[in-house]
Design brief:
The protein has 187 residues and is of the alpha+beta class. It has one domain: Jelly Rolls. It is built from 3 helices and 11 strands. The strands form 3 sheets. Strands 1-2-11-4-9 form a 5-stranded antiparallel sheet. A hairpin with a 4-residue loop joins strand 1 (61-69) and strand 2. It is globular.
Length: 187
């Protein structure tokens, strides 16, 4: 798999707002460096993800593997592995402030997006940020079948849940835009 091509595509997908571009060019602004996501970073995340869905372990692996402080916001790169399922893969979620951009790498799954019903506040997570979750079906659900090479952008406040993941599970990269600097790297 050509992870460097994937990283290039993802960097194009993350549009830098005008204030952030202006800030970088401002004299006296703090120096920043580029943050690289290497093949080795992704290979390590794949190994952890595959162990999470191995027989007897069957769980989701969602790990922030790189985090860049852009000034006005953070950008986290996460690697997610989910096992096969024919029912919703846990509770539906929505994030208060975090925007997520999914890039499918392996497998095919159906994601439902819309409005959460009977939502409760979830504990703040350093991986996905603050938000809500619900065990109820999403209202006004929009169903999208995602395959390798496809992307989906999930704005803050939009409920989302995987409802059908093909045999073998799925892997995808998530770019998380974090305006409140609440995310951290997974350990």
């Amino acid at each position: 798999m050509r992870f460097s091509l994937i990283c290039a595509l993802l960097s194009i997908a993350v549009c830098v707002p005008a204030p952030a571009r202006a800030q970088a060019a401002t004299p006296g602004a703090p120096a920043r460096t580029a943050v690289d996501v290497t093949d080795a970073d992704l290979a390590a995340a794949v190994k952890i993800g595959l162990a999470a869905i191995a027989p007897g372990n069957v769980s989701v692996s969602d790990r922030n593997i790189k985090l860049a402080d852009i000034g006005a916001y953070n950008v986290a790169v996460a690697f997610v592995t989910r096992p096969a399922t024919k029912v919703p893969s846990g509770r539906a979620l929505s994030h208060d402030k975090i925007t997520e951009i999914y890039y499918m790498i392996r497998g095919t799954g159906t994601q439902v997006t819309g409005t959460l019903v009977d939502a409760t506040r979830q504990n703040e997570s350093a991986t996905i940020g603050p938000g809500f979750s619900s065990a109820s079906q999403i209202a006004g659900g929009r169903t999208t079948r995602l395959r390798p090479g496809e992307m989906q952008i999930i704005p803050p406040g939009v409920g989302h849940v995987w409802t059908d993941i093909d045999e073998g599970g799925i892997d995808y990269i998530v770019i998380r835009i974090d305006p409140e600097h609440v995310l951290s790297l997974s350990k």
